[in-house]
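Deliverable D5.2: sample structural annotation.
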Amino acid sequence: MTMLQKGMPKEPVIAAEDLRVWYAGPAGPVRAVDGVSFEVAKGEILGLVGESGCGKSTLGRGLLGLLPDGAARDGSLLVGGRDVLAMSPKEARRLRGGELGMIFQEPLTRLNPLMRISDHFAETLKVHEPRLSRKEIERRALEALRVVGIPPTRFRAYPHEFSGGMRQRIMIALTLVVRPAFVVADEPTTALDVLVEAQIIRNLHELRSEFDTAMLLITHNLGIVAEACDRVAVMYAGRILEIGDAREVFANPQHSYTRELLRSVISLETDGLHYIDGAPPDLVAPPSGCRFHPRCPDAMVVCAQRSPEEKVVAGTAGGGTRVACWAAERRAGVADLGPEESRPLEREAISVADEA
């Protein structure tokens, strides 16, 4: 069962079921994404949050097949009802651009410094829509730039002639010019100031409103998720631990990791820094049971023995909040645990080396 209820008002654009992305490593396979399930409907923005190294970017790239040699995907990945993992590499590649798009981090590393912006658009459209005339290519490019607030007078400028925020908006325009049904936005506001960040978020909303685009927004910024996203998925050690309506999850987090993550956010009311003891686990040999249990303040004996099943434990919007957490399920009365399994787990002392 996926973490999103089937009774959605719109047909899912993309649906992952038990999706895995593993990398080959000298010590064994790295389980970067390990059994992830979710759906994104047309016109919906799903936020994906979690600590660095939890598998967020790997998941985003895995959805598009943009993985290095030595990586493998498994499970089920449906795009428009078609199983991408059953396609040949050539068939899957054809989905990129017109149906699946990606907005990358650090646009200056993605834009060719020797090409004008007009040439970037011409190259993109010629690859995906080779029958377009030069006049139509220019019209489509200028329309996309207008949506993100870039004036037509800058159409023939070079990437280095733009600010960081404008380059990021150009990356958004290059994605939307081919009008994909689903877009992965990987940290689109990293290293931008708050005013530019707000402009980028507004651009993403305009992308949704103009083209009804579904989107996976990967970010560390929980404030952006609260403002920009319909739902949020919380990821840890290659797995999604909690998913539900963004406002409900933030107002009433169910998983212990979600709660601790939210407590770590700094605001004007912050009078001390809060952090989660320890560090994310080694994904070559992750912990047994719940992968968060070595760091969890609510861990019980069962948490180290068995992985919890995903269950609806709270919320009403979008089918409720689904969570994989023994403690949350016990609070909700949907976990059948014996006295020994419910006993608090003794946490091992975390060394300085483990914290690093």
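Annotation notes: The first strand starts at residue 12 and ends at 23. Residues 1-8, 349-353 have pLDDT under 50 and may be disordered.
The annotation will be released with the project's public dataset once the embargo ends.
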